[in-house]
Amino acid sequence: MTDQQTPPPAVFNLHQVYVKDISFESPSSPGVFTWSEYKPETEVNLEIQHRQLDADKNLYEVVLKSTVTARHQQKTVFLAEAQQGGVFTVKGGTDELQELMLEAACPNVLFPFLRETIAQLVLKGGFPQLLLSPVNFDAMYMQKKTAPSRAAAGNGDPAPSQGD
């Protein structure tokens, strides 16, 4: 491989982590706190978004969004949403490597912050602490990459969701 074909070395840096948006709703309160049997079913959805902030500096914003819905006997107990954002430098390497950094490496960095944000939000809502299960963002990325090829092959299966 010649120097012209060798991609520049990859650079990956975190500059800032922040809460971009946050919401908590408890439509069954305060009655939910008097229920004798409380066994909620919880649904967790995750989304990854990214956009370039500054092309010259290779700065990107990556946002990891989680929506947690708890239901008990068809009633919504609470709905917690948080968008955990980060500013990253992502440059060098191949285009595929940069995409992997934006779709997997950045969310891996942001997830512990999102997990803490959701846990505290639910706890401050008066409910037992909720810890999001670990997520394999590398596997999610690989599923996303192979989903179009499976659909083109006539599999007919929809793309995998990024939920729990």
Question: Could you explain how this protein is built, in words?
Answer:
- With 164 residues, the protein is of the alpha+beta class.
- It has one domain (11-147): SecB-like (Bacterial Protein-export protein SecB, Roll), CATH 3.10.420.10.
- The protein has 2 helices and 4 strands.
- It has helices spanning 95-124, 137-152; strands spanning 11-25, 41-54, 59-72, 75-91.
- It has a 4-stranded antiparallel β-sheet with strand order 1-4-3-2.
- A hairpin with a 4-residue loop joins strand 2 (41-54) and strand 3 (59-72).
- The protein is elongated.
- It starts with 10 loop residues before the first strand and ends in a 12-residue tail after the last helix.
- Residues 155-164 have low confidence and may be disordered.
Quick summary:
The chain has 164 residues and is α+β, with helices and mostly antiparallel strands.
Strand-residue fraction?
35-45%
CATH superfamily: SecB-like
- The total count of helices amounts to 2
Gyration radius, rounded:
19 Å
**Terminal residue distance:** 42 Å
- pLDDT averaged over residues: 87
Instruction: Please mark out the parts with pLDDT under 50 across 5 or more consecutive residues, or reply none.
Output: 155-164
CATH architecture: Roll
Please tell me what the overall shape is. elongated
- As laid out across the biggest beta sheet, the strand order is 1-4-3-2
Descriptors for this entry?
alpha+beta, 37% strand, 164 residues, disordered C terminus, four-stranded antiparallel β-sheet, Bacterial Protein-export protein SecB, single chain
